[in-house]
Amino acid sequence: MIHYIEEVKKKVSLQEGTQVIEQLLTASYMRPGISTKELARHTCLPLPVAAAIKKEFIKAGALVQERGVRCTSAGKLYVEQQLGYGGIDIDLYHTLLAGEADWRTELSDVLARLTEILDQRPQVDVQIDQSQCTVETSLRRAILCLREHSLIGKNILCVGDDDLVSISLGLLLKRLFPNAKGQRAGLTVMDIDERFLRFIGDVAAREDVSVTCRHADLRRPLPQEWKGQYDCFFTDPPYTLQGLTLFLSRGLSALKPVKGCPIFLSFAHKSPDFTWSMQREFVRMGLSVRQVQLHFNQYIGAQMIGNSGQMIVLTTTEYTDPPIKGSFEDELYTGEVRRTVRTYRCTQCQSELQVGVQGDFTTIEDLKKQGCPACAHHAFTRLAKKMI
What we know:
Helix content is about 40%, strand content about 20%. A hairpin with a 7-residue loop joins strand 9 (about 285-300) and strand 10 (about 310-315). The chain is of the alpha/beta class. The N and C termini lie far apart (about 65 Å).
């Protein structure tokens, strides 16, 4: 079978990367009779560039200009077999790409199943900056991946996955391809927390979703065989500049070395000064900002960030290069970077206890779980906090 995308890539020089060539072909498959003007809008390309790509596909035999643009029989076969779109629920696909209005209704069964699954996930470990996103947030991330044309037929990496985005991606794929025998994307999770890796593996087996789980301490470089394998990645790193840089660096090492690969970065809303530093890191890594969606992510019990965070979609360029290639020895997590001791009072016996890196308990969650050493009560009031 002719590799139409590679053939067109040889004929048309594009600064945007190969991905837009694929998007133009799949749009012609999903919307037969689409106009050249709509193809240009869909791919965010100038009209003459979209017309040039269309022309090369016509020459190659994948498209035909006939009451608009549509795939030939050979083009359809290529999109279905090589790009992985065969058997897709086209109506659902169009609904999910159209906007926010109807997806919760259309995917109510998936939301219900995810609610059952996420209710059973391990307790977060705040020492490594884990937090629980809501069920809808986890699925919204998967839908965003679809809308960015980075789901079907792609190898997708989750750099840390206490939010179970890998499971959301897998269940969304099953819903899009109800009669498919094989999964239409490769899903991989890298995480330091063995509890979540075991949980994701067990859930994936029960739900008939294929997820590769890899234990990884991101302070160490990725093994060579893990590098250059993925089309995109998700990450919700520690909300420190060090955490942001390290998690992005490891994710970039795992991406295919081509421009146009998307990165789905969930991060807290920050001050203008911190945001400037964050954007400076993006420039240093050779990444461009494609979009920023404020309050995209909603969390449970994350009062420090107002239970809300932004989604930043980044894109690789020809200048992309991870700044951290070797081992990382600096402070990483919030508790390391902002070393504090907090004083809590037991609401029953009035005992005062220190919580923090040099306190009686490492976290307030540990204190609540173990209870007051004097009376075993589990409710506390915070009195003070100081930096050390």
